[in-house]
Every structure is written in C-alpha cells, then in structure tokens.
Amino acid sequence: MLLDEEPATLIQGCIQNFNIAPDRSSLTRISTSLSALSATRQVRLQSLQSDLSHLSRHLSKLSSQHQLTVSSHNPSEYSAEILRLDAEKFRVAKQANDLEIESERLELELENLKSQLNDLDAQGIEGGAEAMRPRDETEDETVLKLKVYRSLGIDAEPDTATGQYNKAVIRNTAKGDVHVVNIDTKFSRYFYANYFWQTL
C-alpha cells in the first residue's frame, strides 16, 4: 500500500512532482534583492540622518543668532534714530539750499561790484561826462580806486621808500580772515584781481 512506503520516499516523490526548483530560485533572487534593497535603504537612511543632524545644528545656530538680535533690538530706539536721521537730512538739505541762495546772491553782488569798478575805471580822473556829482580836484583815479577797494575790505599800503602800492591787506568779515598779499610786478593785474575775488 501507499502508506507502507517510507515517508522520505513519499516526500521525495512529492517534491519531484511539484517541481519547486524554479520557485526556490525565485525565492533566492528575491531574498538577495531584499538584502541589497535593505542595505541601500540603510545607507540612504544614514545619509539622511547625517543631513538632518547638520541642518538641526545650523537651525539651532540661526535660532540663537535670531534670539540675540531680537533681544538686542529696541524698537523705540530704532524709531528715534530714524526720526533723528530724517531731521538731520532735512536740516542738511535746508542748509544746502540756503548756501546755494547765498552763493547766487554773492555772485550777483560780485558782478555789480565789478560793473561799478569798470565804470569807475572808464570815468578816469575827472569822471567823464557820466559823472553824477562834482569831485574835488584832488580826488584822482588812485583815490577812487582805493575807496572802492576799501569798501570791498581791501586796504592797499604804499611802500615808504618808493610810494608805490605793493602790499594789500584783505579782510573777510564773514569768515573772520585777514590775508596780507605782497604785490609783485612779475604777476599780472588779472592774477591779483582773481586772487582778491577768491579771497573775498
């Protein structure tokens, strides 16, 4: 009878009848693939954990810096500083505008004085036909020029030996400056005129 046979023989016959070799081969390949996948997954997981640790440390550092910045920031002081800077900006702008207006006024005044000086030079000693008032006979061209220069803040001093005017004292009352200029004939009158206007 069938049951009288050895169990091992029966099992061996069953194995041969079911042909499980391809299944075992498939299971082996699957097991190998699972092992490789598990190893790859483990490596990837370790890499992600390392990145996470690095990012956590960076976040902690940034959080500390943020807390320090927030704790040291005073909104009221910041607002006060902004207001102060705005006021300073408007003050500087107003000063610049005032200086520009004053510069234009001084330029106009300078042109008027130059025109008056040219008129006086053109009138000569007697004043010409354009003279509006009588002059003393002793009031010559040099005296008139000295008066004009003195009105501008320039005092000409003559040389005691030659009588020639070779020194000028320029006073700038606005700046509180005094300049003494020795006049040398090797420089032109145009040079000294420009220097005097710049000093004034």
* Global morphology: rod-shaped
What is the N-to-C order of secondary-structure elements (H for helix, E for strand)?
A: HHHHEEEH
In whole angstroms, how far apart are the ends?
A: 143 Å
Individual helix count: 5
> How many strands, what sense, and barrel or not for the largest sheet?
3 strands, antiparallel
Spell out the blueprint of helices and strands:
Elements: H1 7-18, H2 21-72, H3 75-123, H4 141-152, E1 154-158, E2 165-172, E3 177-182, H5 189-199
Antiparallel strand pairs: 1-2, 2-3
Explain what this protein looks like in three dimensions.
With 200 residues, this protein is mainly α. Among the domains are: 81-130; 138-200, Double Stranded RNA Binding Domain. Helices cover 68% and strands 10% of the residues. The chain is built from 5 helices and 3 strands. It has helices spanning 7-18, 21-72, 75-123, 141-152, 189-199, and strands at 154-158, 165-172, 177-182. A 3-stranded antiparallel beta sheet has the order 1-2-3. The longest helix has 52 residues, at 21-72. It is rod-shaped and about 165 Å long. The N and C termini lie far apart (143 Å). The model is unreliable at 129-135 (pLDDT under 50). One of its GO terms (molecular function) is microtubule binding. Acts as a component of the essential kinetochore-associated NDC80 complex, which is required for chromosome segregation and spindle checkpoint activity. This is Kinetochore protein Spc24. One of its GO terms (biological process) is chromosome segregation. Belongs to the SPC24 family.
